[in-house]
Amino acid sequence: MNIAFFSSQPYMQQPFAEHNRNYGFDITWFEARLEAQTAALCQGFDAVCVFVNDKLDAEVIHTLASAGVGIIALRCAGYNNVDLEAARAAGIRVVRVPAYSPEAVAEHTVGLMLTLNRHIHKAYQRTRDANFSLNGLVGFNMHGKTAGIIGTGKIGLATLRILQGLGMNLLVHDPVESPEALALGARYVPLEQLFREADVISLHCPLLHDNYHLLCRESFAQMKDGVMIINTSRGGLLNALDAIDAINNGRIGSLGLDVYEEEENLFFADNSGEIIHDDTFHLLSAYPNVILTGHQAFLTHEALAAIARITLDNLQRLARNEPCDNQIN
Ligand code: NAD
């Protein structure tokens, strides 16, 4: 099987090349994203291997089908960037990596919380300049505060385990109750109560049609003054312009984002020499109480190795026409 590997970066290519010694696939690495403008590169490949910001809409899927591609292998869990109906109609099978390291994402989530709370990002800059003033660096004890976790799947649970260790009260919201979350002492509450009572709110649900902009003007209005919001899930879950208003009026005290609704043309590339035509992004990056990371919550050696192993295994199963639990259409 020959595979066109899109959005290739050295940190991803290395574990795939290493694990591919056990599979022997013929992989061609493309740094470009897969989108309408690059879909023609797929001519003659059996499969494409893609990541979160590759855009597999109906037009791209039509081009893939005409080029002879029969498999889309996602190197991620979320599949909101793939038109599954178009893939089904074109007879293209889609596989994903439902879980590779929930702990990697959870640890980054809590890293953002602690950095924002204790102003570590500011202290890092100050001490490099021999400025040891502590003014403006006062944080709060996480112990005894209330966390509101939206989504108690794999990553939500891993986050709850860490926050329980910090001694936080745990409020959660999810249409499906997890016995594991209950065993950790978490209480399932309606979203409105979570908004009202939580000091720190963290998103761990997928982006679906019915939860687009789940965090918006109306939801911020229900929250405590000075609430901390963390989004390591998907950018579209949070209305960034409404968040900026809520920062300006003091409702949001701090904001940690690993994902951003308009990240598609920004993230996973060095744009430091470019003029970025996105005023919302500029505003967000100017606030001292906002930290942005570029969709890196998954980025640990353990997670990358698991992504490579599971993706190549998915491809091998489909190549051999064996059942594959990770097939999503
Ligand atoms: P999961 O499928 O294990 O859990 C998702 C949970 O969300 C489920 O329990 C589901 O019932 C719940 N849910 C669905 N809709 C909801 C809603 N409207 N409100 C509350 N809960 C809802 O998924 P996971 O592995 O925990 O991943 C969660 C999300 O994290 C993924 O969808 C993905 O968007 C994101 N993610 C981000 C990164 C990163 O690097 N930043 C990496 C991996 C995953």
Automatic annotation (TrEMBL):
Residues 4-329 form the D-isomer specific 2-hydroxyacid dehydrogenase catalytic domain. Residues 110-297 form the D-isomer specific 2-hydroxyacid dehydrogenase NAD-binding domain. Pfam families: 2-Hacid_dh, 2-Hacid_dh_C. The keyword Oxidoreductase applies. Keywords: NAD, Oxidoreductase. InterPro entries: D-isomer_2_OHA_DH_cat_dom, D-isomer_DH_CS, D-isomer_DH_CS1, D-isomer_DH_NAD-bd, D-LDH-like, NAD(P)-bd_dom_sf. PANTHER family: 2-HYDROXYACID DEHYDROGENASE HOMOLOG 1-RELATED. This is Lactate dehydrogenase.
